[in-house]
Design goal:
about 190 residues; mainly beta; SH3 type barrels; OB fold (Dihydrolipoamide Acetyltransferase, E2P); 3 domains; 5-stranded antiparallel β-sheet; about 0% helix; about 55% strand; flat
Amino acid sequence: MASTSDIRKGLCFRNNGEIWTVVEFLHVKPGKGPAFVRTKMKNLKNGKVIEQNIPAGHTIDDVRVERRKYQFLYNDETGYHFMNNENYEQITIQGFMISYPELLKEGQDIEMLISAETEEPLTVDLPSSITLRVTYTEPAVAGNTATNATKSATLETGAKIQVPLFINEEDLIKINTEQFSYVERVKE
């Protein structure tokens, strides 16, 4: 058992018989009334995100989880296939368990959250940033240099993302996987 003072980003706990993880939290002490923790949490079974206020001092049923390294192999109609880097066992995950599955590249290493009690996969965590090659983008047009102007680009995984006008085809770019946004151009 844990209390509200133990709440942090990534904490997994049981609520109404289902496993949830904390996405965001804020300890609130209003001028009038008792303190509470405002949380945004994600259901690990169906991907649903809700906000909930938990009174200060309330106990929560935390879930023991393990982080394991896996390698992305491929995806098909049955799901996304991964291989455990330690024992080479393969596992299939549904797309809703991955925040941005279109950013997965074959051979890429990821971390998977596994329930220590049931050995059931809970979620797939991509690295905080990844580097991918731009396969298609429109050329920049002269005079189109307004502040923060962007254009659409297609990446080697098939994902489409907004990039600055100076990005060209075959450029390598770094992408923030938490916000699905362009970070910078990478030199080869």
